[in-house]
Amino acid sequence: MNPEQSTQSSRGNPPFGAQPPSLIGKILAGMISAALLVVAFMFSLVALAIVACGAVLLGGWLWWKTRQLRQAVDAQAARQAEAGGRVIEGEVIRSASPADSGRHFPRD
Questions:
Q1: CA distances from 87 to 71, 72, 73, 75, 84 (A)
Q2: What's the gap between Cα 67 and its chain centre?
């Protein structure tokens, strides 16, 4: 590479004697880039819509398939309420001392 080519390429001119793009070429390239960007955005929206419809369909199918299980759980809760059963919810936090570490508690 001779010194003239290195200074031309460092100034932003195209190497190997190619002509720089004209104003019309730059405008055309900008318009094509904008059009491709719009088309890509449109395809991404279509893909997002397809994925969203698939998720809704999958959720509906899963809801439909588990309806018998939900009905059974509701029926069991109703039977327990009629029988006078109690449900106690809560958390148990127990801190074990070093003396209790070897001790085993019987299970009920």
A1: 19, 17, 14, 15, 10
A2: 27
pLDDT tens for each residue of 25-62: 999 999 999 999 999 999 999 999 999 999 999 999 99
Q: How far apart are CA 59 and CA 46, in angstroms?
A: 20
- Would you say 80 and 87 are in contact if contact means Cβ atoms under 8 Å apart? yes
CA 79, CA 75: separation in Å to the nearest integer?
Answer: 6
Cβ–Cβ < 8 Å for 8, 15: yes
17: left (phi over 0), alpha (psi -120 to 50) or beta: left
Is the pTM higher than 0.70? The answer reads no
Do 59 and 65 form a contact (C-beta atoms < 8 A)?
A: no
Four-CA torsion 74, 79, 81, 87, nearest 10 degrees: -70
4-11: which pairs have CB atoms within 8 A and are 24 or more residues apart?
none
Rounded CA-CA distance 5/80 in Å is 90
